[in-house]
Design a protein that fits this description.
CATH class of the largest domain: Alpha Beta
Strand content: 5-15%
Helix content: 40-55%
CATH topology of the largest domain: Rossmann fold
Largest sheet: 6 strands, parallel
Number of domains: 2
CATH architecture of the largest domain: 3-Layer(aba) Sandwich
Number of helices: 10
Order of helices and strands: EHEHEHEHEHEHHHHH
CATH superfamily of the largest domain: Response regulator
Number of strands: 6
């Protein structure tokens, strides 16, 4: 990660089970570059703390009381570019797609090993996407049936944007995409912003899912 020495990743933990939060907190605080700055057991408190503390990463349960997780993601990301990592027991396709389309930067199950959770927090904090591999493949297959969409010419992706979207779908990081295409990482980020805007999504996976639905990409591209 491109963090300065001594700089810590500030994490907000949310889950409606106190024991779960405490267990995760204890494990994460073993990492010298992590700092858990707050906890919330409901959606309203999670959003309030996100506003007050401005964490780098929110580790978020996919179903929160008092305020839906989708609303937490949308409102938090509308305020500033916070990374949101979903950590949950739930794996229903439709619900996952809604969360990713809303802008979640990662999706892991509670069965994930602690070292994978630690890596995932670093990945999303670095602006990349991460998802349980089996869930990701399942979701892409779920979205692979194209639907007719009326598009203006201006909504189509450019050749370069299509290249970048397909490489992102394969799981390449911004740095890897830049090296592969011989362009800068900043240029890759700029193209992704344009892609998200054209497709009206907030994340890489949201863009890939939408491309599959529109018929702009196929599972062979992944």
């Amino acid at each position: 990660m491109a963090e300065l020495i001594g700089e810590k990743t500030r994490i907000l933990l949310t889950d409606d089970h106190h024991v779960v939060r405490q267990g995760i907190r204890g494990l994460l605080e073993r990492e010298t570059d992590f700092e858990v700055i707050g906890e919330a057991d409901n959606g309203l408190d999670a959003l309030k703390l996100a506003h007050e503390l401005r964490p780098d990463v929110i580790v978020l349960e996919s179903r929160m009381p008092k305020l839906e997780t989708i609303e937490i993601i949308k409102r938090a990301k509308a305020e500033y570019p916070v990374a949101v990592l979903i950590l949950t027991y739930f794996n229903e396709d439709d619900h996952i797609i809604e969360l990713l389309t809303a802008g979640a930067d990662g999706y892991l199950l509670m069965s994930t090993r602690i070292e994978e959770l630690v890596r995932a927090i670093r990945v999303v904090h670095n602006g990349e996407f991460i998802c349980d591999p089996l869930i990701q493949k399942r979701l892409l297959k779920h979205a692979a049936t194209p639907r007719p969409v009326a598009l203006d010419c201006g909504e189509h992706l450019t050749i370069r944007e299509t290249e970048i979207l397909k490489l992102a779908a394969k799981g390449l990081s911004n740095r890897d995409i830049a090296a592969y295409l011989g362009i800068t990482e900043r240029t890759v980020k700029g193209h992704l912003v344009n892609i998200f805007g054209k497709m009206q999504v907030n994340s890489r996976t949201g863009a890939v899912l939408e491309a599959l639905k529109r018929g702009w990409a196929s599972l062979e591209d992944i």
